[in-house]
Amino acid sequence: MSARRHLTRGLRFRLTAGYALLFALLLVGTAALFRERLAYTLNSEAHDLLEQEWAAMKGYLHIVPTRGHAVEHEGCGPYKPTWEYDKGDPDEDFAVERLRRVYVLADAKGCVMQFSTIYESIGIEQPKEIEAAVKSGQPVWKRRVSPHGIPYLIRAGVVFDDKHRSAFYVAVGRPMDEGEKILKRYTWMYAALIPLSLLCGCLLGWFLTGRALMPVMQVAQTAQRITGSNLSLRIPTRAAGDELDYLILTFNRMIERLENSFRQIRQFSTDVSHELRTPITAIRGQLEVALFTAKSVDQYRDATLNSLQDIERLSQIVRALLLLSQAESGQLALQKTRLDLSSVMRDIVDQFQIPAEGAHVELSADLPPECAAEVDRVQIERMLSNLLSNAIKFTPAGGRVHVVLRSLPEAISIDVEDTGCGIPEEHIPHIFERFYRVPAPETCGNPEPGLGLGLSFVAWIAKAHGGTIRVDSAPGKGTRFTVSLPAAVAEPAPAEPVATEAAVGPHWDE
């Protein structure tokens, strides 16, 4: 039962079943269309033949006055039907006999003057019907069935005696059983061929589907050999340029992204282990030294102060990882308020003046008097702190960091530009990726490495505010980060709320 269920749920079975259903509908539709066309052709031929017989009947049948002689049926007026033809000609004799096999003649009042036995068996029209047909003067087509089940096509109409100005009702017919037999034979033949054709189509569909899915199975088998330790393996393309090659290329790109993610995670684990181990080792060493060698209060105080500084570094690392986890999971919601962004940026720049002076870097800002913005103050301060911290860190002594804030009609632009080491072109597409760190060039000295999270936070904060971030950099010339935020809606600015979290200072190094 399980194997049968597995078979019916397989892609090959479903494709074959769909192909078979489509093939069956096509066969049945084609058969029905051809049957209708055949029936229409047979019916048209029957109508044409009956029209020809009607025209021939008008040439052979003559209705003449009786001039006092008795008629075939009394009460039908002084007229007598006669068939004028060459009785010695077998063709004409056969034609007249065929016309008179299914035939009825009546006057304008519905009085039947002459009829055949077959027509009597299928039912002679009532006088009112005959009288109505004579008054309309239009040909009448009808179908009748004899007691033996034989269908007949009847063509009725009016024959005029122009000489005596009289009208007569005449109907002739021909059997349709041959046409019905042809339709039945066609129907039974197709009814027998459809299942056979459907079976052959299913087998062919099963075979073709298997051939079509064979490359997919090869891709699946290759994918099974790819593991976390073997992410460098790639699936070769078939060079066919079809949808399957596109799937293989997409799969290979996904594996490449996974490989990069695994590599970054491994690097991140190494960096985090190193970052955590260094302050922990320092704290332990300082406490052990203080425990065994310190003899005065000042020595204990120095050891405690150094330990607190290392503990603060640990707190920064843990806080950065926690914030990153919250940002990725959507738990870090923005608390937007209407702020004067110029005032916020002026405070951040003032906070970084001391670190900039310590690094012998000139820090300046070009800020408008006011710039209203709908932002989360804590996150904006964090974004600016990360950008300024990176700019000062990677700018050699004697360099310059410049901050520009512009309020445009459609957006707010923030530029943080430095004259530092710059970023090599091959690293620019990856600098906003989590855990990615650009190797510092020799011209930058040996700046303290971070965790590779700062710019990831910057990109997330800009995106969370509905903005964008762009970087322009050239090695040896410097770097400019440009953040674009949506312009604030024009409305009276409310009182500036008190921030629930202290702004991140220059100690942030992510």
Given this structure, which CATH class of the largest domain is correct?
Alpha Beta
Question: Architecture of the largest domain, CATH level 2?
Answer: 2-Layer Sandwich
Helix tally equals 12
Global Rg = 50 Å
Secondary structural class: alpha+beta
**Lateral arrangement of strands in the main beta sheet:** 4-3-7-6-5
**What would the principal axes of the Cα set say about the shape?**
elongated
Tally of separate domains: 3
CATH T-level fold name of the largest domain: Beta-Lactamase
How does this structure look, described?
The longest helix is centred in the middle third of the chain and has 51 residues. It is built from twelve helices and 14 strands. The strands form four sheets. It has a five-stranded antiparallel sheet, with helices on both faces. It has a five-stranded mixed sheet with strand order 9-11-12-14-13. The protein folds into three domains: about 170 residues, Beta-Lactamase (2-Layer Sandwich), CATH 3.30.450; about 80 residues, Signal transduction histidine kinase, dimerisation/phosphotransfer (DHp) domain (Helix Hairpins); about 150 residues, 2-Layer Sandwich (Heat Shock Protein 90), CATH 3.30.565.10. The C terminus is likely disordered. Strand 3 and strand 4 form a beta hairpin. It is elongated. By secondary structure, it is α+β, with helices and mostly antiparallel strands. It starts with a helix and ends in a 24-residue tail after the last strand.
